[in-house]
Protein: Ribose-5-phosphate isomerase A
Organism: Roseivivax isoporae LMG 25204
Amino acid sequence: MPAELSPIDKAKFVAARRAADYVEDGMRVGLGTGSTAAWLVRCLGEMVREDGLRFRGVPTSTRTAELAREVGIEVIGLDEAKWLDVTIDGADEFDPELNLIKGGGGALLQEKIVATASDQMIVIADAAKEVSNLGHFPLPVEVVPFGWRTTQALIEESLVAMDVLGRDMTLRMAGDRPFVTDEGNHILDLHLGRIGNPRQMAMVLNQIPGVVESGLFIDICDMVIVGHGDGRVEVR
Ligand code: 5RP
């Protein structure tokens, strides 16, 4: 373990280190995005360099692709891999059914495509990400730039129809410009407080023209590896 980690980084590191043991020679592995996933990529890079682990990684963002190459992981695209043995990624929240909110780092679209094309999705998270109900973390929704205000109005209408009370929505910014995803889209962050029915919410959002994908991952995650600041690891 790297020396002098803060409790939060230690929690992320120990979860990532445990998840790295699920990667075996010859596998095709989806590599998530975010600070926890970055620990995983570094751990796997070390295993490639020092233990001779041989696998191919499919990154879920340009950031992760750059880091993976930097640490010595062989990087391929999803279409080359076709299907993956496992994807390991972080999350912003997970509930007791292992439904997730993802997209805090803006990579939810590639993350969902890659995770769905995998035999198994393992989430790595610090203990603060565990919730009884999703929604405290703002729900990211990726929208096409064309007519995004109209898309926002349609999302609002849908939330009213679902009797959702908190309906604040913010366009994610990068400085004084709208944030742009790897696919050239924008992100609306929905401040909902509590999502009573995540499955229904995911289906409704995905039917709105202009919505590319939401950060709700329903029935996609198979296992969550939870890291604690004191170095303990639990599996959900
Ligand atoms: C990026 C994500 C990340 O996995 C999520 O935001 C968690 O990030 P971190 O590990 O930095 O807390 O979904 O789109």
